[in-house]
Amino acid sequence: MAFIDWNDVPVQTLAPGVRLRTPYGERIMLSLVELDEGALVPQHSHPHEQAGMVLEGMLELTIDGHARTLKPGEAYIMAGNVAHSARAVGGGCKVLDVFSPIREDYAKGMNEYTR
Fold first, then answer.
1. Structural domains of the chain ordered from first start
2. Is the separation of the CB atoms in 36 and 90 below 8 Å?
3. For the chain, what percent of residues have pLDDT higher than 90?
């Protein structure tokens, strides 16, 4: 798929108050994540490299025990298998994440938080 209309990408629920849309190719995946105020992505890790940028609102991101509050335009990059969690603070938040390789759980519409 070369061009994407985010409105055509199905919405998945990652955790209470956390929704995402995840288009992907063979080796890379985008994930547009929307978090309601106070919504939490619980601590987890995965073998995929992950990078992201806050588009709207503020995100409290904890990577390997180190917390930082990010605002629009601020980004992060993390290696695979590093524990991390995220929480929207000061209102809702929108984040664009990138994973490589693709997360098969997201591609199948499943993840460890909704089982």
1. 18-107 (2.60.120.10)
2. no
3. 80
